[in-house]
Amino acid sequence: MTATYVTKDGSAYFPNEPKGPSVKTSTVPGPKGKATLEEISQVHDVGAVKFPVDYEKSIGNYVVDADENVLLDVYSQIATIPVGYNNPTLLEAAKSDEAATAMMNRPALGNYPPKNWARMVQEGAIDFAPKGQKYVYYQMSGSDANEVAYKLAMLYRFNNLPRANGTYTDEENASCMNNSAPGSPETAVLSFRHSFHGRLFGSLSTTRSKPIHKLGMPAFNWPQADFPALKYPLEKHTAENEAEENRCIRQVEQILSSHHCPIAACIVEPIQSEGGDNHASNEFFHKLQATLNKHNVLFIVDEVQTGMGATGAMWAHEHWNLPTPPDMVTFSKKFQAAGVYYHDEKLRPHAYQHFNTWMGDPLRAIQAKYIVKEIRDKDLLNNVKVVGDFLYTSLEKLAEKHPGKINNLRGKGKGTFIAWDCESPAARDTFVARMKMNGINVGGCGVAAIRLRPMLVFQQHHAEILLNKINELI
C-alpha cells in the first residue's frame, strides 16, 4: 500500500492511513497469524516473535498483521522505523537505478568500494553526522557498531605504545597468536549498570540489563559503574538527584583509578533504553566526560536507540551541549544502517586490523540519505518536539487521574522518547497485552516500565488515540 504526503501545516503525513486501529480476532496473533508462525517455525526460530506482519498492507503509523488486525504502532519495530511503513519517498528511492545497482552488485567495501563511495558516504552519513564527527565506519548492526568502537579504542591504545622501531615486536606477534600478553593485552571497557549495548561477545560484556542476555556466555572481566537512579518528578528531588549523580561520578573515578587493568574506553547510552528508560542530567554527562578525559579514557556514546530524531534532536547527546565532541558515536535502528562516527584520524587502525567482507552496505547508505531527506523536508524534528510535549503533558494529567498507575513519568523535553513505571512487572505485562488487543502496539523495558517509541511521523491525532486507550485500560 502506498501513500501520498500533503503539506507540513499539521495535516496528516499519510492521508490514507486508517482512521484508527481495529482488532478483528480474539487473540493477536489470530488464527492466520498462528498458522504463519507454525509455518515459519519449520525453518526458523519463532521464540521471540510477537506477531507476523503484512508489510504490504501496513502504512504510516499503522502495522497490519497476518489476520488483517490494524494496530497503531507506538513501538515501531523496537524503535527502528523512522518515517512510517511504506513511506512513498523511500519506495521511490528503492526503485531507483542507484538502489538497484547497489543491491545487485553488493561490493566487498573494504577491498573493492564503488567509485562513487565517497559521495555515498558523505550523503548517507557525514552530512548529518553529530557535531564534530568527521569519519564513519559502517557496520551491520548496533551490536557490531559497539564491538567496532571497542576495537578502535583498544587498537588506538595499543598502536600508540612506545616501541623502539615503531613496529610490533617479535614477542607481540608471537604472543597474540596464543591469546596472551603482550600481543593480546588485558584491556577493559567501562559500562554502566542496567546498560544494553548488544549481544555479541564484546558488546555482551558491557550489557547489564537482563540475565537472559548473558546466561551461559563467557564474558570479559570488565567493570561497571552505577548509572544514576533519579527520583521523579525531577523538580521535587533536585538535591537528592544531584547527590546521586555525584555518587556515580565518584564511582567512575574510583574504577578508573583502581581497576586491575587499563580501561581503554567508557560507553554510555544517552537514555538507558532496554534497562528501563533511565535518564541522567546534562550535567552528569559533562562530569563524566571530564572524568574520562582526566584518565585518558575514550568516550563512546551509544546512540543506537536514541539517534535519528527520536528525542527531538537528530542525536540525543546534542541535548548535553558538551564542550568537545565524544570520541565515538555508535548508531543503528532508525538510521536503517549501523556504524561508528569518530573524529580523530588516529582512531583509524592499520589495514586489516579492523576488516570484514562487507564493511557495511551501500544500499543502507542510500536509504539513510532519503530518511534524512524526509526528516528535513517534512520538518519532522519539530513534529517530534511538539507532539512529544503534548503527549508528556497529557500523560502527567493521566498520572494525576490514576494514582499509582503511571509512576516515575520521564522524558520531558525529549520528544516522544517517553516512559513510565507500572505498579509491578505483572501489571506492565498485562497492560501491554491489553493495549495490543485494543489495537495499540507498545513495548516494555526494565523491570516494570512502559516505553513509547513512535515513529517521527507520529502526530497529535495518533497521540490522542493512544492517550484515550491508556485512560481506558490503565
TrEMBL record:
Which Pfam family is one of those matched by this entry?
Answer: Aminotran_3
Which prosthetic group or cofactor does it need?
pyridoxal 5'-phosphate
Look up the EC number in the record and give it: 2.6.1.19
In terms of Gene3D superfamilies, this protein maps to: Aspartate Aminotransferase, domain 1, Type I PLP-dependent aspartate aminotransferase-like (Major domain)
Alphabetic keyword roster: Aminotransferase, Pyridoxal phosphate, Transferase
Per the record, its GO cellular-component terms are: cytosol; mitochondrion
GO terms for biological process? gamma-aminobutyric acid catabolic process
Substrates-to-products reaction catalysed: 4-aminobutanoate + 2-oxoglutarate = succinate semialdehyde + L-glutamate
Q: Residues annotated as region Disordered?
A: 1-31
InterPro entries reported in the protein's UniProt record: 4NH2But_aminotransferase_euk, Aminotrans_3, Aminotrans_3_PPA_site, PyrdxlP-dep_Trfase, PyrdxlP-dep_Trfase_major, PyrdxlP-dep_Trfase_small
Alphabetized GO MF terms: 4-aminobutyrate:2-oxoglutarate transaminase activity; pyridoxal phosphate binding
Keyword Transferase among UniProt keywords? yes
Member of which family?
Belongs to the class-III pyridoxal-phosphate-dependent aminotransferase family.
Q: Which NCBIfam families did the record assign?
A: GABAtrns_euk
Q: Protein name, please? A: 4-aminobutyrate aminotransferase
Species source reads Schizosaccharomyces cryophilus (strain OY26 / ATCC MYA-4695 / CBS 11777 / NBRC 106824 / NRRL Y48691)
